[in-house]
Known about the structure:
Layout: E1 5-8, H1 10-17, H2 21-33, E2 44-45, E3 52-57, E4 60-67, E5 72-80
Parallel strand pairs: 1-5
Antiparallel strand pairs: 2-3, 3-4, 4-5
Amino acid sequence: xxxxxxxxxxxxxxxxxxxxxxxxxxxxxxxxxxxxxxxxxxxxxxxxxxxxxxxxxxxxxxxxxxxxxxxxxxxxxxxxxxxxxxxx
Length: 88
């Protein structure tokens, strides 16, 4: 079983740090699981993107990109669902 590298930028790490405590634990757990299963059950492929997906953690969303060629999962955003689709 191939394992993917999960990449989290400083700005996304900051988003995670600002989540409510009970959400942080679940978010970190889900992100860690993406290393072994980049497209878990319940994942939604985002329309208009080749390799972007999102998973939900309560009212929060983790948006990420999968690069199969380089075995990389890049976490793009980790925010409340009302904020996650805003640009920037």
